[in-house]
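so my prof wants the structure for this chain in the tokens format not the other one, which i didnt know existed until like an hour ago. anyway here's the sequence
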Amino acid sequence: MARINIEIKARCDNHAEIRKILESQNADFKGIDHQIDTYFNVKKGRLKLREGNIENNLIQYTRPNISGPKQSDFALYKTEPNSQLKKLLINALGAKVVVDKQREIFYIGNVKFHIDEVKGLGKFVEIEAEGEQKEGAYKKLKAQCDNYLKLFEIKEKDLIDNSYSDMLLEMT
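here's what i got, hopefully its the right format
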């Protein structure tokens, strides 16, 4: 069945407070991942290769650039670290931008939390509620995101409407 992801990204300088809240909610800490996301030139949506010590995936997704909770429709393909895939994709499509980040990964049920420090951009927090794409899913997943927005006391002015890749491209 197709998957749906509702996500929120926000600037966040209080990583220690977010960690405390997650610990108080018995979040499952998966570790710290140094991730290199290489985005490729594609006609529709986005295509990125994520290389990390925890997560390694080729991810194709579409998502609107709006602040607050937004739906992302995606396909994920698990990859092997240090494969030739990156070279193949760069040769075929060309690299658009590279995002280099340190990411702390936590889970509470179907909700994933990222505490990010992105090279060249700063500190952020992401909330991603994932589920099956079926009747009522969007409403349920958005409610979960809204709940954590309140719990983390994230202000509307701190919400980010685009991706780290877009932010880096705007700087060039």
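also thought this was worth mentioning. The mean pLDDT is 94.
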